Amino acid sequence: MLKAPIALMTAGIVGLAACQAAPKADITSTQMVIDLSDYRVTPNLQTLKAGKAKIGVRNTAGMVHEVVLLKTDTAADKLQVDGGSAKAKEEGTKVASVLNLGSGGVAAMDVDLTPGSYVLICNIAGHYQLGMRSAFKVE
Question: Could you read off the pLDDT of 91-103 as tens digits, one per residue?
C-alpha cells in the first residue's frame, strides 16, 4: 500500500533534480578571470605566466556571450571579419573557448599557455565589431 506513494515521491524528487540548473563552475582558484559584459571582454590581468592555467569566465551581461582565446600576433582590434557571417576570422591558434554562456553563467577553461600574445574575443555575430575583444601577454 505504501509502495505507490513512495514510488511517486521518488519520481517527483528525481524530476525536480533533473529540472534544476547545472552548477556553476568554481572560479575561485583561477589564475585569471574574464568578465563578459555587453560589448566588453575584461580580463583581470594583462600578463600571465607560461604554463598550465585555469581561466574563469563570468557573463554579467543580459544576453548570451562566448569567449574564444587565440594565440596571435595580430592586435585585438585588427582581426579580419567575415562579411557573410559577421564573425571575426579566428586568426592564429585557437587555444580554448567557452561557447554560448548564458546571462549570469560562469565557466572555466584549463589551458597550457606558451609565451606570446593572446587575444580574447566574443565571436557571436557582430559582437567582435562592437568591441568585445581584449589582449594579454604570456611570459
Answer: 788 999 999 999 9
